[in-house]
Amino acid sequence: MVDYTKRPQQPSQPPNQPPNQPPSHRPAGGPNLTKVTLTKAAPSISLTKGAGAGGRMRINLNWSQGAAPAKGGFLKRAFAAGSGAVDLDLGCLWELSDGRKGGVQALGNAFGSIDGPPWVMLDGDDRSGTAQGGENLFVNLDRLGDIKRILVYAFIYEGVPNWAAADGVVTLHPVGAPPIEVRLDEPAADRRACAIALLTNEGGSLQVRREVRYGADQVELDQAFGWGLNWGRGRK
After folding, report:
1. Number of C-alpha atoms within 13 angstroms, CB side, residue 104?
2. CB of 77 closer than 8 Å to CB of 160
3. What pTM does this model have?
4. Does the domain formed by 40-225 have CATH 3.90.1170.20?
5. Residue 9, helix vs strand vs coil
């Protein structure tokens, strides 16, 4: 049994990446990897072996960008409304090909593991929204055969549940393929959890599907996608 209560070390750079080369881009002279934005009209993309469905994919959450400077960011608007700072967390539900299921999130210190089951790791907890880089999940797609599906979600741990005002964006950075962006820009009154994207193993390729479905909490997302986990109270 893997101990998910220990904060893992930052994963080392994949050996197949050139030094100082971002994992979602190839060296100069390679193809131009243009960002892909998943929308309601075009909600999914398939990544194949050698073109995104391998290596260590980084999934980044950033919620402090996109606001007009004159109006201030989401945190400034939240403080102005007297609600205090906002803590927006990144997490996921995972299911392995052998039937094991679980979750990775800062709440409960379930940071996961990149070098062992569940092959998914959260690199830390950004509580302020001001840390450069936001929060990151890493998925070891070299073990894609061991992974059945992963549901990436965000959760407002503290602050006003106003997703449209937060200007949140999640960007997946697959190795050797364009970055994949999902924007959390739809209104959802009093909903603290958002299912962002569903990643599924489709015969050795990785299917990424935009969800952007809101729920009261992670339990409601669990029920909506049929995970069937037992949930309890947790602290950070």
Report:
1. 31
2. no
3. 0.76
4. no
5. coil
